[in-house]
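Hey,
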Amino acid sequence: MSIWKNLKQTHDLTLSVAPYEVKKAGTTTPTTALAKPQKQKGLYYIQYKPLVGTPPIDVFVKLFDYVGGLEETEIRICGDESVYIVNLTGEEADAVAAIIGDTCEKNKFEHTVSCVGATICQIGFQDSSGLIKVIKDTVRSARIIYGSIATIACIWLSIFLWYTSSGYTRIPWIYKNSR
C-alpha cells in the first residue's frame, strides 16, 4: 500500500478554511506618520523598510519582543526587504515607531537596497551595501532635498553597483574612453 493511501486511511485530510477576522479594536489615533490606517476601524499598520535593507539586530529583537506580547498583531515579511507590522492600535503604532526610530527609510531613495545577505556581493568584489550606507549617510548629513536629486542619485548608484558587482572594475563609457 502506498504511503498516501495509508495516510488517507489513518488521518482526516479535510481542509477547513475560515475567514480570518481580527477581533481587536483600537480607540486611539497614532501620532507617528509611519502608521497607515487598515480597513478595520481603529487599527493601523506600519511598513518597516530598514536602511540598506538590513535592520540592526538589536532593533529587530526589540521589535519582536514588543510585538510578540500584543494581541492579534503580526509581522509579515515582504520580498522587498521590508516587513509590515499589522493590527496595531494607535498607541501600539507609536510604540513600534519609537522602536524602529531612525533605522527606517524616510523616502524612496533611502529604500535603495543592494545584494542581500553579506555586505560583499556573491558575484562581485565590492562592498555594495557599505557603499549605499555611505551615500545615504552623506546625503542625510548634507541635508540634500529628496526628489529629483535622489532619483538621479539612485540611477547612478544602481548603474555603479551593477557594474561593480558584476566584476567590472570600470564603468563602460569610462573604460571605452580610456583605451
